[in-house]
């Protein structure tokens, strides 16, 4: 049986790698208690507690923020000094909460859990024979053991060529990947198979053979390869609070602008209208610089929704508002970029109705990477049409991984996978440190530039995401169609973690929906929005602010409950404030809508149904009293153990307001001073429909209604009986909102 290309070429890859790189892992020393030093690789802790990592040759130490201090003296190997015209890089990769590299006592690089690698260039004095004292300090993550994954020296040419053959090992790896993809060993592998790399003479012959082969392979930019777009995935909150996100965004964006000046080919794309809005308000000079780069076509807003939201737990109205707010902001601030892309690389699955909502807002392309994380069943498509039940659809792209660098072997491996899945040659590549921002680094771009001129590397071109997607659109008719949700087989606990966030989200969704329906009724009754007062205009601004608070808290690491506790502690007052704003606007709109209506009785309460629902029997928990309809007929009631009374009545038909009267238990209409002292109505217990959840069972001073837009009960403002529902503001001089009654979800 013929040997495969990997079997034939692997000895040659290792031979060439030994000429141009040095593994530093065996030489790191760690200081032990008592001043003793030992080799870090021999530490028995890793062998005992993480045998899988130990088998891979990693340097391991315990979790919990523990520090590992490594050191070694670095000398230039004698054979390298004779070559000249080369650059040496110290290549490190770690899994650590924090990392700092010091050379001769000077800090030269810092990193963390997200910026996990460096390619530091060694100084000229090292080439002259001066040793360097390396000190590497690593702090383990709180949630996982730490590891130094890679540490090595690598040579690279200083020009576009490779006269010393220091890139031959990686070039042969590219040959192996392409040969395996094509299923044939290729002529180079066949000729090298006849030579033995262990023999000095045959090794020299193999080197000359490879150089001869490369000389005939001039790179052609017209050939398909990679479409490169710099990117910095930035979670608005996760392992850090929101306040830290603004600082990370500012650092990331300033770095990207600086790199654009030094690397004219660089294009950069970033999402999240909420982030741009913050910059516009708080960092106007930086926002103006970004806008200039956008106008020049080198900075691309890849937005879609207001934030990269959760797309499973939120209501359809919220999903629509996410796209409505995000698209409106993008159109108004970035008019030169068509808002046709929904960029959601990291959300934990996507509901089946998303294509309909996205398409209605002007989106043509949906982009994510998260489904590549499926734990059991790989998602079958990289490029497809995603269709909702109504027939609306968006073109969908499973993007390249986020948080990648310029490693040519990793890039080629991804490109071959893309080719097998789609049949297309050109793959998207997204270099840049991610999760906590960061974006492309100078080292990444230098690595990309180095390989751009190498014959065996696939050609690169830098450009916008929209330009790449435009090249894919002609293939639309041949793409498979997906007619279901995009279910993520991972993070399955998010539907139940942090239930307080789910309650906050649902109650605020309900209140905002009710406020908008109430405003629509008020506007229709007054024959349109003309003549709004300044107070009403301010109210609309408040409602928009409450909506934006909701949309922000629906970010895919906040609402699902996957962030650190500080995020939720800081979100608590924002949820409360937004509910107060929404409730105030709902109450005000209902009060103005009801104001012209005649009052059938002196002490009228109102049950308001805000949607066109049929009349259904209702059992409602109301304050203690003798409840009657406007015609005086008594309503069945019984005391509720937790306070108030259960009252049975027939709900109104359609959009309507039903007048109720509350009398004292003695049979007389209630007085302005309030109900008898025996009323046990609790300030924490607003009206409730029998058989459903409390319309608002929340903290004192915070309450909301029932299902969105279903109904509301009003009571006279001039009477404030003991136990009136908490936080209720007057609607007008004659009415106050008591609670909302709805059909539930």
Task: Tell me the name of the CATH homologous superfamily of the largest domain.
Answer: Glycoside hydrolase 38, N terminal domain
Helix content: 25-40%
- Class from secondary-structure proportions: alpha+beta
> Quick one: overall form?
elongated
How far from one another are the termini? 65 Å
CATH architecture verdict of the largest domain: Alpha-Beta Barrel
What is the name of the CATH class of the largest domain? Alpha Beta
In total, the number of domains comes to 3
Radius of gyration: 33 Å
CATH topology of the largest domain: 7-stranded beta/alpha barrel
What is the topological layout?
Blueprint (H helix, E strand, L loop, with lengths): L4 H16 E3 L5 E3 L5 E3 L4 H6 L1 H5 L3 E3 L5 E8 L3 H4 L4 E10 L2 E6 L2 E7 L4 E5 L2 H4 L4 E8 L6 E12 L10 H15 L3 H7 L7 H16 L10 E3 L1 E2 L10 H21 L5 E3 L2 H10 L1 H12 L3 E3 L14 H18 L7 E3 L10 H7 L4 E4 L14 E5 L5 E6 L9 H15 L4 E3 L12 H11 L7 E3 L2 H8 L8 E2 L16 H27 L8 H20 L11 H30 L9 E6 L7 E6 L3 E4 L7 E3 L5 E6 L5 E8 L24 E2 L22 E4 L14 E3 L2 E5 L6
Parallel strand pairs: 12-20, 12-21, 13-14, 14-15, 16-17, 17-19, 18-22
Antiparallel strand pairs: 1-11, 2-3, 2-5, 4-11, 5-10, 6-9, 6-11, 7-8, 7-10, 18-19, 23-28, 23-30, 24-27, 24-29, 25-28, 26-27, 30-32, 31-32
Helix pairs in contact: 1-6, 1-7, 6-14, 9-11, 10-11, 12-18, 17-18, 17-19, 18-19
Task: Write a brief caption for the model.
The chain is α+β, with helices and mostly antiparallel strands and 745 residues long.
Note down, in words, how this protein is organized.
The protein has 745 residues and is of the alpha+beta class. The protein has 3 domains: 5-215, Jelly Rolls, CATH 2.60.120; 226-482, Glycoside hydrolase 38, N terminal domain (7-stranded beta/alpha barrel); 499-739, Glycoside hydrolase family 38, central domain (Substrate Binding Domain Of Dnak, Chain:A, Domain 2, Up-down Bundle). The chain has 19 helices and 32 strands. The strands form 7 sheets. It has a 6-stranded antiparallel sheet with strand order 3-2-5-10-7-8, with no helix packed on it. Strands 25-28-23-30-32-31 form a 6-stranded antiparallel sheet. Strands 1, 4, 6, 9 and 11 form a 5-stranded antiparallel sheet that branches. A hairpin with a 2-residue loop joins strand 31 and strand 32 (735-739). The chain is elongated. The model is unreliable at 670-745 (pLDDT under 50).
């Amino acid at each position: 049986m013929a040997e495969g290309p990997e079997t034939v070429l692997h000895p040659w890859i290792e031979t060439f790698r030994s000429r141009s790189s040095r593994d530093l892992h065996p030489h790191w020393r760690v200081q032990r208690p008592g001043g003793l030093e030992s080799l870090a690789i021999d530490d028995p802790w890793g062998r005992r507690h993480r045998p899988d990592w130990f088998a891979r040759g990693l340097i391991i130490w315990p979790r919990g923020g523990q520090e590992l201090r490594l050191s070694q003296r670095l000398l230039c190997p004698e054979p390298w000094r004779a070559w000249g015209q080369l650059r040496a890089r110290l290549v490190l990769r770690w899994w650590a909460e924090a990392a700092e590299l010091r050379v001769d006592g000077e800090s030269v690089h810092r990193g963390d859990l997200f910026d996990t690698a460096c390619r530091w260039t060694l100084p000229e004095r090292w080439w002259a024979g001066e040793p360097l004292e390396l000190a590497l300090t690593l702090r383990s993550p709180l949630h996982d053991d730490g590891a130094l994954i890679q540490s090595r020296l690598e040579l690279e040419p200083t020009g576009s060529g490779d006269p010393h053959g220091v890139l031959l090992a990686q070039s042969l790896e590219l040959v192996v990947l392409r040969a395996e993809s094509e299923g044939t060993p290729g002529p180079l592998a066949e000729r090298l198979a006849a030579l033995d790399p262990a023999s000095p003479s045959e090794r020299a012959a193999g080197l000359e053979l490879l150089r001869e082969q490369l000389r005939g392979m001039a790179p052609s930019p017209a050939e398909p390869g990679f479409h490169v777009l710099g990117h910095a995935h930035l979670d608005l909150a996760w392992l850090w609070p929101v306040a830290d996100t603004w600082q990370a965004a500012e650092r990331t964006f300033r770095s990207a602008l600086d790199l654009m000046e030094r690397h004219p080919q660089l294009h950069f794309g970033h999402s999240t209208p909420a982030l741009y809005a913050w910059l516009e308000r708080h960092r106007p000079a930086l926002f103006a610089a970004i806008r200039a780069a956008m106008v020049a076509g080198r900075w691309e807003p890849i937005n879609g929704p207001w934030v990269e939201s959760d797309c499973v737990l939120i209501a359809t109205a919220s999903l629509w508002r996410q796209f409505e707010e995000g698209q409106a902001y993008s159109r108004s601030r970035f008019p030169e970029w068509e808002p046709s892309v929904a960029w959601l690389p990291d959300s934990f699955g996507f509901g089946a109705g998303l294509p309909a909502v996205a398409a209605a807002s002007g989106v043509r392309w949906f982009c994510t990477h998260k489904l590549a994380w499926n734990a059991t069943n790989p998602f079958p498509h990289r490029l497809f049409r995603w269709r909702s039940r109504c027939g609306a659809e968006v073109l969908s792209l499973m993007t390249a991984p986020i948080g990648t660098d310029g490693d040519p072997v990793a890039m080629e491996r991804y490109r071959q996978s893309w080719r097998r899945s789609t049949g297309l040659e050109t793959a998207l590549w997204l270099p840049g440190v991610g999760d906590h921002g960061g974006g492309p680094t100078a080292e990444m771009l230098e690595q990309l530039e180095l390989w751009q001129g190498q014959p065996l590397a696939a050609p690169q071109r830098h450009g916008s995401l929209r330009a790449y997607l435009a090249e894919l659109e002609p293939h639309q008719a041949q793409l498979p169609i997906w007619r279901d949700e995009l279910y993520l087989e991972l993070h399955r606990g998010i539907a139940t973690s942090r239930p307080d966030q789910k309650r906050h989200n649902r109650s605020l969704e309900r209140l905002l929906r009710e406020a908008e329906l109430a405003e629509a009724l008020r506007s229709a009754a007054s024959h349109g929005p003309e003549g709004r007062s300044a107070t009403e205009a301010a109210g609309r601004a408040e409602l928009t602010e409450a909506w934006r608070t909701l949309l922000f808290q629906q970010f895919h690491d906040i609402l699902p409950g996957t962030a650190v506790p500080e995020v939720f502690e800081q979100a608590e007052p924002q949820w409360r404030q937004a509910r107060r704003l929404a409730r105030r606007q709902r109450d005000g709109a209902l009060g103005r809508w009801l104001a012209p209506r005649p009052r059938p009785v002196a002490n009228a309460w109102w049950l308001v149904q805000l949607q066109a629902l049929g009349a259904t029997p209702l059992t409602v928990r109301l304050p203690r009293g003798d409840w009657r309809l406007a015609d005086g007929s008594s309503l069945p009631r019984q005391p509720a153990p937790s306070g108030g009374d259960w009252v049975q009545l027939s709900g109104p038909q359609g959009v309507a307001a039903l007048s109720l009267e509350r009398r004292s238990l003695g049979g007389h209409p209630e007085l302005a001073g309030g109900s008898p002292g025996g009323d046990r109505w609790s300030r924490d217990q607003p009206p409730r429909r029998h058989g459903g959840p409390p319309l608002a069972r929340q903290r004192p001073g915070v309450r909301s209604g029932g299902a969105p837009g279903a109904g509301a009960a009003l009571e006279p403002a001039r009477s404030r009986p003991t136990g009136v529902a908490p936080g209720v503001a007057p609607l007008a001089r004659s009415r106050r909102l008591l609670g909302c009654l709805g059909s539930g979800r």
